[in-house]
Structures are given as C-alpha cells and as structure tokens.
Design brief:
The complex is a heterodimer.
Chain A lengths: L1 H24 L7 H25 L7 H19 L8 H18 L14 H36 L12 H26 L8 H22 L5 H25 L6
Helix pairs in contact in A: 1-2, 1-4, 2-3, 3-4, 3-5, 4-5, 5-6, 5-8, 6-7, 7-8
Chain B lengths: L1 E8 L5 H10 L2 H8 L3 E6 L3 E8 L5 H9 L13 E4 L1 H11 L11 H16 L4 H20 L9 H13 L6 E5 L3 H12 L4 E6 L2 H10 L3 E4 L3 H4 L5 E4 L10 H8 L7 E5 L16 E5 H17 L1 H22 L4 H11 L1
Parallel strand pairs in B: 5-6, 5-8, 6-7, 8-9, 9-10
Antiparallel strand pairs in B: 1-3, 1-4, 2-3
Helix pairs in contact in B: 2-3, 4-6, 4-13, 5-6, 6-13, 7-8, 7-12
Classes of the chains: A mainly alpha, B alpha/beta.
Chain lengths: ~260, ~350
C-alpha cells in the first residue's frame, strides 16, 4: 500500500516533468496550473506515504536511506509550495519537479529500503534534529534550483541568445533575492537541527559532526560572502549548486556510515 | 442570413487609399443604401473593412458604389478590395483580432481597435445579433491565441527590446537609476519608455549641457555635466549611450573601478551609438550586460521569428473556432451562409 502511494507520487512528478519537456520542445514553454496541480498531488501522496510509514514505525520515518531520500523530496515539495507561488516563482515548479523525481526515483529503484533489525527507543530530540535537518536540506535544494534558474537566465542575457524560456523565467534580481531567502531559511533550520543534535543524549559520532559542521560552515561562508558584497550573484548561484551537491553527498555518507546506528 | 466582409488593408492598398476610405465609411449609409441588416466598420491605420449581414446576397460592386457614392462606371480601386463570405469572413475577423493579419505579427493594439469598433456599432444600433455573436467569438479567439501561444511574446522594436531586457534584469524598474549619455532620438525614446514603466531617477549627460537640460526636462530627469558622467556609473543601474564619439568612451579600464562595491547590483548598458560608445569586451565583466544596436535589432528579429513560428498554432485554434462558429451559425440560419457565399462568388 505505502509503496503504491510513493509510486503514485513519483508518477505525478514524472507527468509534471514530461509536460514541461513537451512544452519546451514545442517552443511554447509557459508556467501552467497543470504543473502546480501535479506537484500538489505528488506532495499529497508523499505525505500519505510518510504518514503510513511513520504510523507503522511509530516514529518519524527517517530510519534508513530510502526514507531519508523520500523525506528530502517531501521537504523540497513542501518548501516549493510554501514559497514558490507567493513569490511569483511558480516557474520554479518546472525546475523542482525534475529534482524531486530524481531523488524519489532513485529511492524507489535503489535497494536501500532496508529495515534495521535493531529497534531503538523514540527520542524526541533526535527526531526533531533529523526532521529539521531534512527540511533545511529541502530549502537548500530549492536554493540550488533558484541557482540553476539564475545561471540559465544570466547565460541568455550575456550571450544575447534569448529562447522561449527567457520570457517565463523571473528577473535576475528576483531570483537572487529568492536564493538569499532560501539560503537564510535553510541555514536557520539547519542550525536549529545542529543545536538540537547536542540534546539527543547519546554519544555524538565524530565523522557525522565533522560533516555536519562542514556543511554549516560552507553555507555560512556563502551567506557571509553575499552580505559583505564579496561574491557576485553568479558565483553565489554556482555555490548554491555546489553546496547542495556536497550536502547531499555528505548526507549519503553520514547514512552509509551510520547504518549500524539507526537515527 | 448572409455574413460577409469587404475591405482593403496594408496587403492590398496604399496608405492614401486606406485614408480615403476610412473617412468615407458610414455604417448607417451602408445599411440604408444596400439594405444590410447589420453593418460594422473597422477602420484602423492598416485596414478599412466592413462586416455586414444581409437577408439577400449583396455583390461587392454594389457595396463599393454605396461606399464611394458614385455611378457603377466610376468605381475606383475595385482591385484593391477583397471579400470574405460566411466561414471565410469569420476566419478573417478571427485572424485580424488575434493579430495574425497585422503588419507586425502578434501586435495586440488591433484587438482594442476591433473592440472599439464593435462597441460603437452596438451603441449606434448597427450591430445586431449576428455581428454580436461573430465579434464576441473573435474576442474569445484572440484571448485564447494570446494565452495559448507565444504570438505576442517578445518586443519587436529596439526601444521596447531594451525596456523588456531591463525588466528581465531588474524586475521592478521603479527603483532603477538611469543615465542617458548623449541626447539622440533613440535614447530619448528609450528613456521615455523607461519613464513610462515607472523609472523616476533619470540623469542626462551630453557634451552640450543645454541639450542635456532640454532632454532632462522632457523625461523629468536631471542634467549632469559631461565631465562627471563616468562617476555616475557607481550609482546607476542602466546606461543608455548614443554619443557621436569616434572612439569608445567606456572601456573595461574606465568601468572596473566604478564596479567595485556593487558586486550584487547588475549594470545594464544599452549602446545605440554608431560607432559604438562602449568597448565590446565590457560585456565580459561580471554583472555587466552590454547590448549594442545590432544585438537589440537581432533580438527584435528573433522575437518576430518566434512570433511567426507560433502562427501555425494560432491558425489551428482559429480553424477550430471557425468550424464551431459555422456549425452554430448554420443551425440558426436555414440557408447556410457559406452556400450563399459560393453562389455570390460565382455571380461576381
């Protein structure tokens, strides 16, 4: 039942991506309600999956890499739905859907849904730490999406080659402020997640801590560069993409290393 | 009921001919002279057309006689007039309203003119239920074509391309500062366009300070002495340059110190001077977007080409509406308009 929910959700995101590609091929790319509806439906099915899985586990469903990836995809869709339409960044959906599809598709296809034999007692601080960090990752993922959009738009403006998509992408300055907002949101959530990690009561794994702080410092440096006007927007956009790629790799590494210690 | 359209346009007649008929068209005179049940005149700078419905088939020659108020042998410019009946009339109006028959494909001004013509005819009582159905459908078709295709997308003149690009860089232009360097005609037009988009801070600099003051007064800006214009680059967002200088005034060396401290603020440079005022390699600088007259013209042509690509998609939408309109129109009228149209065409 729960796998069907996730399959249904992935299908919704696949439809959104296919629709975007089809309109791009026709040279008539435009943000339509169709994409938003597909994403809302995909998000609803994701939420249902997480609810069913969480109910079965009796805890927040982030106990293995498969659940972590699904939770990350859910956070991404959640933050897009919260900040996309109000900030008139609805086109972000066209860029968000492929990322969600990629993460969720990988979670479904890779043999990573392994239930851990040891059941650990529920620790509210640990759950708070993990879920905050995941939602922060969602914000970082969207900052990465905004970064991609910025670089696409900037490239077109620099080379004077304006394609159909140019007229539908938001202005550079709007994308830059969206990127900044998402970075701040992600950074605040990540910091909350990081601090709560110290209250979990258990011994803190050294590698996990080093990786987590490395990600925190990376994003902190980007934000400092932005606010001291040391970094040009194009570089910040590129760094958002790099930082998210690094953060996801770290997330993978952390989960891989801690397979013997379910969170 | 016979539905038809007779007219001349930029495709078939010179501007002098169009001017002459634009003044001569009177819906009331047409109705009384040739016995149309309904008549509507659409007179724009590109076309003069009469849309009408009548109980009996009416020959074009009869309409031209009524239009020119003359004897049959004195009718002039008959070869410039075209005629569309029944479905073809609906198709023609839908194409006109959607901007497909315009000089600049996809222009939207014509829809407003069609709406005005319809409102005037409705108010005077010369447009009845047939023309009401036809024109209401035309407005729907135009709206659908506009929202479902990219036919209206992109600017097609140098000035509007520059303003569009500024919008794509800065979003809200109201907070932007603009420096107009050189008081040329295109600079003035571009500055006016920016002004109409809400830009308030416009500075004008010219070798002749008096001309700078004159242009500043026109665009509600302020004049800057020519010696100080480079310093302005620290504060401005948009530079419009069109001086008569033989050598580039703005080079990387001149601009680099001005960009220090504005890492996250883009600078949009519109160089419309020939020879160019800004060295081309300035475009390679971080956060600087340089467009010269050729690149602006090329974008205008790209937009036009993009619009032309959309024509077939627009024609498809129109064809669907024409078929549906003809079916509904046929249901309401015992003798299908298209049949009467064929009979009339052979008579002509």
């Amino acid at each position: 039942m729960e796998r069907q929910l996730l399959l249904g959700s992935t299908l919704c995101f696949l439809i959104a991506v296919a629709h975007t590609l089809a309109t791009l091929r026709d040279g008539m790319f435009r943000p339509r309600r169709f994409n938003l509806v597909a994403i809302v439906l995909g998000f609803a099915l994701q939420s249902a999956f997480l609810y069913v899985r969480g109910h079965a586990l009796g805890r927040c469903p982030i106990t293995n890499l498969f659940e972590v990836f699904v939770f990350l995809a859910w956070s991404l869709a959640l933050i897009y739905l919260v900040i996309g339409p109000p900030y008139r960044l609805s086109l972000m959906g066209a860029f968000t859907a492929p990322l969600v599809l990629l993460i969720q598709g990988f979670a479904l296809l890779a043999p990573i849904d392994i239930q851990h034999p040891i059941r650990v007692a529920v620790n509210p601080w640990l759950e708070f730490h993990a879920s905050m960090s995941m939602i922060a990752y969602g914000a970082f993922a969207l900052a990465c999406v905004a970064g991609v959009m910025y670089l696409v738009q900037e490239r077109q403006l620099k080379t004077h080659q304006l394609h159909s998509i140019f007229y539908h992408l938001p202005p550079l300055t709007n994308l830059f402020s969206a990127m900044t907002r998402l970075l701040w949101l992600g950074f605040a959530l990540y910091t909350a997640g990081l601090i709560s990690g110290f209250f979990t009561g258990g011994p803190l794994p050294r590698l996990k801590m080093i990786c987590a702080f490395a990600v925190w410092i990376f994003y902190g440096t980007i934000l400092q560069g932005r606010h001291l006007h040391r970094l040009a927007p194009k570089r910040i956009a590129a760094l958002c993409i790099l930082a998210f790629t690094a953060a996801v790799s770290v997330l993978w590494a952390i989960n891989f290393v801690s397979q013997t210690r379910p969170t | 009921m016979n539905l038809f359209c007779v007219g001349i346009s930029h495709h078939t007649a010179s501007v002098e001919t169009r001017e002459r008929y634009a003044a001569a068209c009177s819906e009331e005179a047409l109705r009384s002279a040739i016995g149309c049940a309904e008549a509507l005149t659409l007179a724009t700078c590109n076309r003069v057309e009469i849309f009408a419905s009548a109980e009996r088939p009416i020959a074009t020659a009869e309409i031209l006689r009524a239009l020119q108020r003359c004897d049959p042998e004195d009718v002039q410019n008959a070869e410039a007039f075209y005629r569309h009946d029944g479905e073809a009339c609906a198709q023609h109006l839908f194409r006109v309203a959607a901007g497909l028959d315009s000089m600049v494909v996809g222009e939207t001004e014509v829809l407003g003119q069609v709406k005005k013509a319809y409102e005037a005819a409705r108010a005077s009582g010369s447009a009845g239920s047939v023309l009401h159905r036809l024109f209401q459908r035309a407005f729907r078709v135009a709206k659908q074509v506009r929202s479902s295709t990219d036919i209206t997308r992109g600017a097609v003149s140098v000035g509007s391309v520059a303003v569009d690009l500024a919008g794509k860089i800065f979003g809200d232009l109201r907070a932007c500062s603009v420096l107009v360097l050189g008081a040329g005609e295109i600079s003035e037009r571009t500055a006016r366009s920016l002004n109409s988009r809400g830009v308030e801070d416009i500075r004008v600099s010219n070798r002749s300070f008096e001309r700078a003051q004159n242009l500043a007064a026109v665009v509600r800006g302020r004049a800057i002495p020519f010696a100080d214009w480079t310093e302005q680059c620290r504060e401005i967002d948009i530079l419009i340059s069109s001086t008569a200088a033989d050598e580039p005034l703005l080079t990387r060396r001149v601009l680099a110190p001005m960009l220090a401290g504005r890492a996250d603020r883009p600078l949009f440079i519109i160089d419309i001077a020939v020879p160019r005022d800004v060295a081309p390699d300035v475009n390679e600088m971080e956060g600087v977007y340089l467009y010269d007259i050729d690149s602006l013209q090329s974008i205008a042509e790209q937009s036009l080409a993009l619009r032309r690509q959309q024509v077939s998609a627009a024609e498809k939408i129109i064809a669907e509406h024409v078929a549906d309109f003809a079916a509904r129109f046929g249901e309401r009228n015992s003798a299908p308009a298209s049949l009467n149209a064929r009979a009339l065409t052979s008579e002509l």
